């Protein structure tokens, strides 16, 4: 079995202990990775600091960094099919979704590549004889801790912004999904000064925790669950290291009776079955106007039952869950749903012919739960939609805001006034009106209200995560005096 090495201080390195990486579609291991040791992580951080402070990196011009990132985007597109296969192998995604993720990665490198020489400071008027400049400098060594659900997209979005602004980057990929990051690092390693790009693998509780608690790093971008985000923030706080946290969600789709029905049905369906519901911004709660509930749900159930499910390589509508842990968690939650609510469709695991050990479950709709039920409040991270009804706009807003999360919200109505009013009252970082996801939205700031996170990624605003401000005041006088 191939062993995927780490990239530390410009070398391909193996750790002490091997971790098997499984293909979710088959339940079989396909590669191994290393659990990085503390000494190896220290070495990576030392190397990254050396590289960041080097004259070689300082002299790498912003437009050259940008050109490099745009070239990477081109390389990714040229190898899109191969990279999509790797992503599908690691995550179990249907190939069509994996291809979309690879294209999104290319777009991130292109977008931030184009921005690299446009990150500008400003001058402030003080008085005659004083020039005051605000300069945006890179923060230094940036750590990127990545989850397993969209590995290539999530790694690319922060790594592209960090390199564009001139930082040294250390990636800690999720233990389940190293392959696409390895390909990306292979390409960058050959073109960047030694130590500017490094890739560490290993368990979160070991490698991730040690990295987060290190005193010699300068920013952490963490994408993952709320409990881990809290640990990372606590560890970083000890060293006053800033964090950007992109955490979980329990996002609502709010459907009014006057919605375009076809659009709303399709939007609600895709928002929960994409990536088998293993999406931070999954539309996990349907909030539906009471008078419209029965006809809408009847059609939605029919659509759910048409969803085809199979291995990533079969490229159907939905793939498997990531691994045994996810599978056990989701199947036990489905049992809870059957006991405490009313399962309208799904609610069971599936056997897929030819893939007997894959982790498949049916897309599920659960009605009749109490609004405070854990299935209604907590992120499930599987293809499970919970349904609640409202009579008034105020009730819809209260339900939308009822959880501890606030990542995104969908609003489906043909009434412009209702749409704007609800959007203004919903506590979420992104609001979609009569769409869900805006086709990926590389350019749109993304991040959470409440426990869904701190800070924003994507868009030009994310460049600020990777820069810090220096204010320089210069006194000048008339030559020879006046
Ligand atoms: P996770 O929190 O278990 O792990 C995320 C990463 O953190 C992994 O690389 C893991 O190895 C590492 N990690 C684990 N324990 C750690 C520790 N103590 N210290 C430092 N690092 C540690 O999350 P997951 O299961 O990989 O991903 C699913 C979660 O991610 C969901 O909650 C989902 O909503 C969230 N997510 C959020 C976004 C977003 O942009 N807001 C995007 C994707 C996923």
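-> sequence recovered:
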């Amino acid at each position: 079995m191939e062993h995927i090495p780490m990239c530390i201080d410009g070398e391909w390195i193996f750790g002490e202990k091997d971790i098997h990486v499984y293909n979710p579609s088959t339940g079989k291991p396909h590669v191994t990775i290393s659990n990085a040791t503390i000494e190896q992580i220290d070495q990576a951080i030392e190397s990254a600091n050396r590289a960041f402070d080097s004259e070689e990196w300082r002299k790498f011009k912003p437009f050259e960094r940008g050109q490099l990132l745009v070239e990477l985007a081109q390389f990714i597109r040229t190898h899109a099919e191969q990279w999509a296969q790797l992503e599908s192998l690691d995550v179990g995604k249907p190939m069509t979704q994996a291809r979309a993720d690879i294209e999104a990665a290319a777009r991130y490198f292109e977008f931030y590549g184009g921005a690299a020489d446009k990150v500008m400071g400003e001058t402030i008027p003080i008085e005659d004889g004083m020039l005051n400049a605000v300069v945006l400098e890179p923060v230094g060594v940036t750590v990127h801790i990545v989850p397993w659900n969209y590995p290539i997209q999530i790694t690319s979005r922060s790594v592209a912004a960090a390199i564009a602004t001139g930082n040294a980057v250390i990636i800690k990929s999720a233990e389940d999904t190293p392959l696409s990051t390895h390909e990306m690092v292979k390409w960058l390693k050959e073109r960047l000064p030694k130590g500017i790009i490094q890739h560490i693998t290993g368990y979160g509780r070991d490698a991730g925790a040690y990295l987060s608690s290190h005193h010699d790093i300068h920013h952490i971008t963490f994408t993952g669950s709320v409990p881990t985000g809290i640990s990372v923030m606590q560890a970083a706080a000890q060293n006053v290291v800033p964090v950007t946290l992109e955490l979980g969600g329990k996002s609502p789709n709010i459907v009014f009776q006057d919605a375009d029905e076809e659009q709303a049905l399709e939007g609600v369906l895709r928002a929960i079955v994409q990536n088998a519901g293993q999406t931070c911004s999954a539309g996990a709660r349907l909030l539906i106007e009471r008078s419209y509930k029965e006809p809408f749900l009847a059609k939605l159930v029919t659509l759910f039952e048409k969803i085809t499910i199979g291995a990533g390589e079969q490229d159907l509508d939905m793939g498997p869950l990531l691994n045994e842990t996810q599978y056990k968690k989701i199947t036990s939650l489905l049992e809870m749903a059957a006991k405490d609510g009313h399962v309208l469709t799904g609610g069971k695991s599936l056997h897929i012919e030819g893939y007997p050990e894959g982790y498949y479950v049916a897309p599920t709709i659960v009605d009749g739960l109490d609004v405070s039920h854990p299935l209604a409040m907590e992120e499930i991270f599987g293809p499970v939609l919970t349904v609640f009804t409202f009579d008034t706009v105020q009730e819809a807003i209260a339900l939308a805001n009822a959880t501890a999360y606030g990542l995104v919200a969908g609003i489906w109505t043909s009434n412009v006034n209702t749409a704007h009013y609800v959007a203004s009252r919903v506590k979420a970082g992104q609001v979609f009106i009569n769409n869900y996801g805006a086709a990926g939205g590389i350019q749109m700031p993304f991040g959470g209200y409440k426990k869904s996170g701190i800070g924003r990624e994507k868009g030009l605003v994310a460049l600020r995560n990777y820069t810090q401000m220096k204010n320089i005041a210069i006194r000048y006088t008339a030559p020879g005096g006046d």
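The longest strand covers residues 130-138.
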